[in-house]
Amino acid sequence: MTQCIRLLCRPPFGDDSPATPPNPSWRSPDITDPFSSSQLTYTYTTNGVDTFPAPSAYLSRKHSWVHIFPEGKIHQHPDKAMRYFKWGVARLILEAEPLPQIVPMWVDGFDTVMSEDRKAPRWIPRVGKYVRVVFGKEVDGEAVFGDLRERWRMLKAKEEAPLLSPRDDQASSQRLEQGQTLPIGVLTDHLKFSQDAVNLRIECANRMRQEILKLRRQAGYPDEHPEAALAETWSQEGSGRAGKMKAGSQVKDV
Length: 254
Known about the structure:
This protein is α+β, with helices and mostly antiparallel strands.
């Protein structure tokens, strides 16, 4: 998620990220050997053991297009109902600097081309199906999300204040020098789990959902039940990670 947030931004990210001019050649990336560099921000890890080149370390990728499926999994519902939106989409909106341009999209019909309950041969797409992609207008980000981003900035600043004047027994990794802020995409436990942070992400994800629902309505589908936006609603489907659920939807992790 940190890498996704940073792809929407421009380095430096507040943790000694490189800020040299990008190489003009698309064939030659800005970083020739990320694994031998002394800059730790050239790589990232998912579990503390593995190592991958950091996409956001390439200056040619600043302000990238990041395409998000906010449901976080394959979800094919007979009524075209959407699952609750996961909070990653909220983090992209709240934490990226500057506020990214947001273009909502409604993708319809692909479940008929490759339905999760299709019979053999499963690898063959079904032809003759009706597919459409509806693009909405660019969202007025400041009007829709500006107040939430301001609340996030205040919450983040409040969390950073003690790190500027740390206790003597506080780990060096939890300290900030004067003028420093937390690196973009990096959160303390409080910014991850506090009720204020959680409520902000819930509200932000819900506002993004409303933008998608406008396109769903434009595509001719009736308004969904308000409880469809709640994680608690979809937990009633069952704990299965793949296959047909109680509500008739087909789900699969990706």
